[in-house]
Amino acid sequence: MDVTSSSGGGDPRQIEETKPLLGSDVSGPEGTKVMGAVPCRRALLLCNGMRYKLLQEGDIQVCVIRHPRTFLSKILTSKFLRRWEPHHLTLADNSLASATPSGYMENSVSYSAIEDVQPLSWENAPKYCLQLTIPGGTVLLQAANSYLRDQWFHSLQWKKKIYKYKKVLSNPSRWEVVLKEIRTLVDMALTSPLQDDSINQAPLEIVSKLLSENTNLTTQEHESIIVAIAPLLENNHPPPDLCEFFCKHCRERPRSMVVIEVFTPVVQRILKHNMDFGKCPRLRLFTQEYILALNELNAGMEVVKKFIQSMHGPTGHCPHPRVLPNLVAVCLAAIYSCYEEFINSRDNSPSLKEIRNGCQQPCDRKPTLPLRLLHPSPDLVSQEATLSEPRLKSVVVASSEVHVEVERTSTAKPALTASTGNDSEPNLIDCLMVSPACGTMSIELGPQAGRTLGCHVEILKLLSDYDDWRPSLASLLQPIPFPKEALAHEKFTKELKYVIQRFAEDPRQEVHSCLLSVRAGKDGWFQLYSPGGVACDDDGELFASMVHILMGSCYKTKKFLLSLAENKLGPCMLLALRGNQTMAEILCLMLEYNIIDNNDTQLQIISTLESTDVGKRMYEQLCDRQRELKELQRKGGPTRLTLPSKSTFGDAGLRLLSEHLTMLQVLNLCETPVTDAGLLALSSMKSLCSLNMNSTKLSADTYEDLKAKLPNLKEVDVRYTEAW
């Protein structure tokens, strides 16, 4: 019977569906052919441009007619034999059921019992009806309009076919037939007019279950199945079991062309659209194995680098915001896996606390001078929080080198060698000395773990080279999200040093501020890569770079200097002795801001500065500034002072001005947070001729009082105040 129907106003077309479900004819009783198991001619309803949402449930009119097949046409045309019932039907995974099982739908209709689904469109047929052929009868479904009828038609067809494919592919016999059925299943999903996530996910889940239950496939069968389902993966994430299958293929055949041609767009889509690897960890594992497979190719990291470039894009800004955090998540998980053996077996790998508390072998060679470890470094941002554990690893400096530098300084200033017994203030030797060469915990990774570590650390390096990614990367790495065993591994910290160096070189505060610890009481990259820190393997060059960039933008300069003086004074002086200009500048600022209270320590700093040309020059400039300041104070201070707009100079500071700058003639306090309490102190500045109090919290009474007490005041600006 040829059936046609209109749908949504479009011209209907008939196409022949001749693709078998099993690839062979299956005969039924008395030589009849079973519907759905043989090639058949059936009119499919396809509409130009029409798309439908997959129905899971809905309201529809139902009529069930029981009849022998020979009287079908007569019964269908007999209107008086038909009675319609309203039902809310649910399209479950294996049957069509009613929410109120009664009447025609007292029992659900299994998809396996539905022989055919057809729209009715002949003359005198009920409008907007579907015919479901079942053994011994017919189920008629009547929708409200043609669009709903077509939506029910395609949804029922989809549910029926998916159910059959699940049954067929659950018991495979010949894999060449199975592969053919998989291709047919994929084609069905790609050509379906239904729009729903499950349209592509359902075939993937069927194939995923098939592969998980049949692990004895050959490599060729692996690749054939992957190629067959590839079109479905262009717009869908693979399910967990399929990810595991892909991981296995990447590990066993990393050089297969399937990895490049099929997996690349899949991984690209995962990195661009995945929102949380925590909910789908196998997607992250698949991405990790794919990257390792790329690294196994002849070009190795060059291929990985090109892949990262393709993910970033050719422009200066990556258009996909999820790419960077997803790549970082993959790298962090991969690096963690490299040390998992040590993490799970603490007996073989001392904890970080044990390492810090002395799990180090003492040096057999005695140093020329008594050396000791530096004081533990508290958090850079807070002086109040101190760490209870010393540094993991100290800077290795040849004791002969230190001895020469200390000897030279001691010769220049013999009076500076204070007693070493006083621990309240470190003497010159204590400040300059770092620990001699000491053995630390040895971590040896296996070949595969070593390759995994090297590959993913290189990816972090590549990510740090992109200017637009660097702020987010610095923020993601600021909490130091690596296991302590990794931080105790010299190879890892040495390789990661490049990334930290990139952060230290970036002039943007949002980047280099991430070198500091994320909260009080916790180490940051600044501490780990500073002399005496776990990761410091140089003579302090990176430390000097970090100090230089942080001093250039730190808005709490004095607090920063206080932290350096408390915890890193020795390294600062040692680097200054070697001619480092940044450290010489730091020492001068410590003297200028009166950071150091102890006179002996001040003399040690002065001696250090005078030991090099650059330090001596800076110290002389500091002395010149100090002499000029004292001369200015002797003369009564400056005569003109303008504070910057929105300045934090408040009432307390204004009182200090009135005490020390009594000869001031012009003062601009515009838009500063001063109040009457501070402004009243200006009454002692009798030389004031011009006073700007625009946009301050000046009251009318205070203004009148100031005018009475400042006889020389000629120009006053009180706009946008209460006195205006």
UniProtKB/TrEMBL annotation:
Residues 1-28 are annotated as: Disordered. Residues 51-169 form the C-Maf-inducing protein PH domain. It holds the Pfam family PH_21. One of its GO terms (cellular component) is cytosol. It comes from the Eukaryota. Coiled coil: none annotated. InterPro entries: CMIP, LRR_dom_sf, PH_CMIP. This is C-Maf-inducing protein isoform X3. It comes from Cricetulus griseus (Chinese hamster).
